[in-house]
Amino acid sequence: MTRNEMNLVNMFKTVDRFFLNNIDFFRAYPSILESHARIQQGLGIIDGLSETQSTDTKVQTGLKKNEKKELDLKMIKVSDAIGAVAAATNNPELKLIADWPKSLLNRLREGDYYIKVQQVYKTALPLANQLQGWGVSMDDIETLNTLSASMKQRTPDRRNIEVVSKQATTELRDTIADLNKELKNTTDKLMKPIATLNPTVFGQYSNARIVVDLAATQKPKEDDSTKAK
Hints:
- With 229 residues, this protein is mainly α.
- The protein has 12 helices and no strands.
- It has helices at residues 3-21, 23-26, 30-53, 58-89, 92-98, 104-107, 110-124, 128-132, 138-191, 194-197, 199-208, 214-217.
């Protein structure tokens, strides 16, 4: 939410508390209670959308980063073992597959990275027995496939979160605007006669309707250069 939207929502909540505190008085005015009910419904929607909007993609990004670190280590381990088999058997084809700059792990584009992982994985599978002698287990080999598949899934998961969050932002903006219209076009007009019937209650409502800029009320931090010496 923007600062202005947060200020409006805080005002909506203040109005909601005002009606709850004066519920007995307003039982005689069902149309006002109906408007209050719509305000409460809108606040419920806002709370749900706010939670969706604040969903952070950092979780998916962090998991993907950790998986890549582990996958990089497995790639080096398996490739080095393939290189050893290539040297022992004088196999130039295996040597070309295994002998690649390890700095590529951080330079390759995502799609090319997965292609390289699959190349090493498919090369290692039929060599599993020979690679065991160089410290590579079948689990090490399969990890190349499972981790790369998991990492590839992180990207659409992160994008899905971003899409859902963006939609929630749009719906949140619309709900806040609708709720503000409810107050201006309905609640305020229904409350006008209360100014004569009960000036005290109307005064409380007027105070509740004030939009306070919370950021503007915060005391600015004292600059070191302005402190007394």
